[in-house]
Amino acid sequence: MNNQNYFLVRCMYVILMGLGFPIMRYMSLNFDTLNNNAVRFISGGVLFCIFCLLKYKNHLKKINIKTALLLFVLSIFMTCNMFFFINGIKNTSALSGSVFSILAMLLGILVASLFFIDERERAFNYKFITGALIAILGSFLFIFNDHSLSSSSFNYIGFIFLTIAICIQSIQNVIVKIVAQYLPAIVISASTATISGLMFLLLAIKTGVISELSVTSKDLLILLVLAGIYGMFTGMLMAFYIVKTQGVTIFNVTQLLIPVSTGIFGYFTLGEKVDVIQAIGAVIIIAGCVFATKR
User: Number of folded domains in the chain?
Assistant: First the structure.
């Protein structure tokens, strides 16, 4: 594949991921978080499992007790991460979710530096430190100028949820890097998504919110299933493909464009608006992340 085709793949990824955040927010407004994640994860996870059974049978046979335990622990972190992330995006906006996903990249590198030498060398580089500080400054500017929040009280619960989510994700990424030494990314994704989906399903049954699905229209349920498959395809398969064919640095820079795409789709699909100061904050975050991830 030539450079032009690689560029088209990156453009398609930015566009599809930009639409993905409004889809997640729309579903979060129409379904309880437990039901939302249960259906989405199981739908995408089952599709991935079928693919693994067809293409990765040999790798599935290599899963031992240690690897299975790591996959289970990873699923627990994924479950917690998505619980807080969906609640966070539900109480803020699609753009907020995409911006915090960018911040998660920096935090992930910082936490990974505690365990891996290559990440440590990167985290203690002056460019990373300077860029991270710029991004954090931009995030404060973005958060404290969100006029959709209640002005009468300090109602920042959505941003608190998003912050917890990216903290969990940073630890989750360390486990992924360890497991990736033994299994392909597609196998990790399939098992993690399926197990997490089953965990959400059990929680939905135990809390009784599962009854919500019985009174939901079939059309909306089908949309939720498709949203799960869509999320897996864009958030995992396309991401892994870009990392594999074009490298981590190119992938990180590509991710920085997603908030722009999300802001556009959020405006046309959900009617979300961003004021000038928030736009400046988003630009500062992106600029800081570009500087931090630059080799």
Answer: 1
